[in-house]
Task: structure prediction
Amino acid sequence: MNKYVRKFTAAAAMLALAGCGGAAHLLPQVSEGETNRALSEIEAAPALQIHQRSATKARGIVFETAKRLEDAAGPVCDQLEETVCVFNIQFNDADEMNAYATGENKIVFFQGLAKYLQSEDEFAAVIAHEMGHHIADHIDKSQGNQLIGSILTGLLFALVTASSPGYVNSYQYNQDLQTAMNLGSTVGAISFSKEHEREADYISAYILARAGYDLSKARSLWMKFTKESGRTQTGLFDTHPAGPERLAAWDKSVAEVALSKDLLPKLDNTGVDEDLLSIFD
Ligand SMILES: [Zn+2]
Result:
C-alpha cells in the first residue's frame, strides 16, 4: 500500500464515521430476545389480504389522512428546526405495492399498496413513516452518503490504477471508473438505509399519536409487511427493508410514546456532528 492509498483509507474511515451519525433521534434499542419474540409473532401472522375499494376512494383516504397528520406534526418538525412541515402528497393509480418519500417533502402513494390496507390507521402509518423520512432529512442525507461512497470509490480506483501500466485504453478506463463510482454510490445508500427506516418509524409513532391514530393498528400493518418482505422483493421492500428487529423497535417506540408527557421524540445530542455532511446539501 503506497502512502497515497494509506491517506485515502484514513480519509475514507473518517467520512464513514461521519456518515454513521445518521439518526438525529435517540432510537430505541432492542435485545436479541425481543427480536426473537417478534420473529415468532411474524411467522404466526396472517398473510396480506386485498381490500376492495376504488382508486378514487383510496385517493380520498390518502389525502384526508395526510392532512390530519400534517396538522399534528408541527411540533415534531419544529424540534429539528425543520421549518417546512407541509407535504406534497401524490396518489398514483398504478398497481405497484409501494409508497415513498422523495424530493422536497414529496410523498408518492400507489393504489397497488392501498388495496392491502384495511383501516385509515394503516394508511396513516404508511404516510407518517414517509413524513418521518422527510422530517429527519433522510433524502439529503442519503444523497450525501451516496455521493461520499461514489467519490471515495472513484478516488480509490484512480489511485490504484494510476500506478498500473495496464490501462492504455482511455475509453475502457472511463467505463471502469464509472462502474467503480456507481458501486460506491450503492454501498453508501445501503449502509444507511436501515437506520433511516428505524428513525422514520420512531418519528411516525409520535406523529400518529399526536393525530389520534391507533398505534396498535399501525403495528399490525408493519407485522404483515414484515412477513411479506421475507417472501417477496417488491419496490416497497427494496426501499423499506423490514425485519423482526424493526417490529421489536416499533413496540419500544409505542411504549415510549405512551409514557411521553410532551409527545416529542427524543433527540440524540451525543451523535457525530451532521455538519460534516452539510457540504453536500
Ligand atoms: Zn421508509
In short: The two ends are 33 Å apart (CA to CA). Residues 129, 133, 197, 200, 240 surround zinc ion (CB under 6 Å). The longest helix spans residues 170-210. The chain has ten helices and three strands.
